[in-house]
């Protein structure tokens, strides 16, 4: 029994003696120091100046708007402080806390303020700032163990330098020393060594508490984790479906279409080699086979173009320009997409534009149309405007309803503004990344 106990004692003793010199101890101490100042400033600004003042002003009639603005600013500041704390924890503690989802941008100022006030992540960051202040104070007290221990250790040197009347503090009240002799100075040095041996463990205890706060308040919640997991799964499924369609279009273009074109050419050659002395039914059979091959080739080309338009390989601007050029109606195209979307989103945007142009030609009686595409804040906006008779609406089972469902598969939306007499404006909002 003695050997296993000794085998356990030696590593534990080594860990205690080497803890003050370990990299982990110094990083945790640096974290306690560096996180105190931003938390103190954040507590003052968020809790006292912004949130409290914002709530107070919101309760008054004339201060509602300024109060809401103060609240929004406080929530944004709390989010920024939370990001800073996550970065410090990742650099110094090796604590990788997942980034929470970004707040969804609302349309318009009112919706934007509402979205900010309903940002659960920001309110959790506010709670972290409030709770973290006493923990930061305890962390600063843990840092004091290092400073006081170091002052005790150098007590003999200070005595030798001629400083014979000084007092040494203690991290624990009531245990301070006032050495008035060289022997007492060496006793203070021994006491300082004991403090330095304990300092890493005191620091580690409060850092462990801070880790729990980080995971509880600054990490995404269980629901947010599940939502992110589902979004990632959906993105993979959408991208995989887009890649499969692109591969199918390429196979049709390079395989079946080529063989059908070769078949049509062969039938043309057979028809040219037949003369009037051959049987008439043979002429008709070759003509019918050749026409069927040509029609099948045309249908196959249209089908492959619907799966994945080749123009999309060069980007959405070229694809929309090509689509407008093939449309019988005059179409003006305005595209401003400095940030390119994923292939699946580009395919969906192209499909929406194609279907909307088809609806304009079939139902609106318009003389002209305009397509606008732009990106910003991680969103792709597509607008199709026509000068037709108006009156378009989203009917169950209709083409617009189908586009609405397609947009919803990637958390997008489609809205229609079409008063009687026109003009009709259809807006499609899609994320740049599914």
Describe, in plain words, how this protein is organized in 3D.
The chain has 12 helices and 5 strands. The chain has 434 residues and is α+β, with helices and mostly antiparallel strands. 26% of the residues are buried.
Search tags:
434 residues, alpha+beta, elongated
Strand order of the largest sheet: 1-2-3-5-4
- Based on Cα principal axes, name the global outline: elongated
Q: Bin the strand percentage.
A: 5-15%
Let me know the average pLDDT. Answer: 77
Stretches where pLDDT is under 50 for at least 5 consecutive residues are: none
Radius of gyration: 36 Å
- Number of E-state strands: 5
Q: Give me the number of helical elements.
A: 12
Instruction: Please trace the helix and strand order, writing H or E for each element.
Output: HHHHHHHHHHEHEEHEE
> Which structural class do the helices and strands define?
alpha+beta
**Helix coverage percent of residues?**
55-70%
Quote the distance from N terminus to C terminus.
61 Å
Biggest sheet statistics: 5 strands, mixed
Give the quaternary arrangement of the chains.
single chain
Tell me briefly what this model is.
By secondary structure, the protein is of the alpha+beta class.
Task: Please write out the topology.
Elements: H1 2-18, H2 23-58, H3 64-93, H4 108-117, H5 120-153, H6 155-160, H7 182-218, H8 222-273, H9 280-307, H10 316-326, E1 331-336, H11 343-364, E2 369-376, E3 379-386, H12 399-408, E4 413-417, E5 424-431
Helix pairs in contact: 2-3, 2-5, 2-7, 3-5, 5-7, 8-9, 10-11, 11-12
């Amino acid at each position: 029994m003695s050997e296993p106990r000794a085998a356990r004692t030696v590593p534990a003793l080594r860990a205690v003696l080497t803890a003050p010199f370990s990299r982990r101890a110094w990083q945790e101490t640096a974290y306690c120091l560096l996180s105190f100042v931003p938390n103190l400033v954040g507590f003052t600004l968020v809790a006292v100046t912004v949130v409290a003042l914002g709530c107070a002003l919101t309760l008054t009639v004339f201060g509602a708007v300024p109060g809401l603005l103060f609240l929004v600013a406080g929530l944004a500041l709390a989010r920024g402080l939370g990001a800073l704390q996550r970065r410090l924890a990742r650099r110094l503690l090796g604590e990788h806390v997942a980034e929470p989802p970004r707040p969804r941008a609302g349309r318009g100022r009112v919706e934007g303020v509402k979205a900010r006030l309903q940002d659960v992540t920001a309110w959790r960051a506010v709670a972290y700032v409030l709770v973290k202040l006493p923990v930061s104070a305890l962390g600063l007290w843990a840092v004091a163990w290092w400073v006081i221990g170091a002052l005790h250790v150098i007590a003999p040197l200070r005595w030798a330098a001629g400083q014979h009347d000084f007092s040494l503090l203690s991290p624990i009240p009531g245990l301070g020393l006032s050495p008035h002799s060289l022997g007492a100075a060496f006793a203070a040095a021994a006491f300082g060594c004991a403090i330095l041996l304990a300092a890493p463990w005191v620091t580690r205890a409060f850092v462990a508490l801070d880790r729990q706060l980080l995971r509880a308040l600054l990490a995404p919640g269980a629901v947010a984790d599940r939502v992110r997991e589902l979004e990632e799964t959906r993105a993979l499924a959408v991208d995989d479906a887009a890649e499969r369609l692109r591969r199918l279009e390429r196979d049709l273009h390079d395989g079946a279409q080529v063989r059908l074109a070769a078949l049509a050419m062969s039938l043309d050659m057979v028809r040219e080699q037949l003369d009037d002395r051959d049987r008439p039914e043979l002429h008709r059979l070759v003509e019918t086979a050749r026409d069927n091959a040509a029609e099948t080739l045309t249908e196959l080309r249209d089908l492959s173009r619907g799966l994945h338009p080749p123009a999309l390989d060069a980007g959405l601007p070229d694809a929309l320009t090509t689509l407008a050029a093939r449309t019988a109606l005059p179409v003006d195209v305005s595209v401003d997409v400095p940030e390119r979307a994923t292939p699946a989103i580009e395919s969906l945007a192209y499909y929406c534009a194609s279907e909307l142009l088809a609806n304009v030609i079939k139902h609106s009686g318009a003389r002209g149309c305009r397509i606008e595409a732009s990106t910003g804040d991680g969103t792709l906006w597509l607008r199709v405007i026509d000068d037709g008779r108006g009156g378009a609406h989203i009917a169950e089972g209709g083409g617009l309803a189908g586009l609405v469902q397609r947009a919803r598969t990637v958390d997008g939306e489609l809205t229609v503004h079409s008063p009687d007499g026109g003009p009709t404006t259809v807006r499609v909002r899609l994320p740049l990344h599914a």
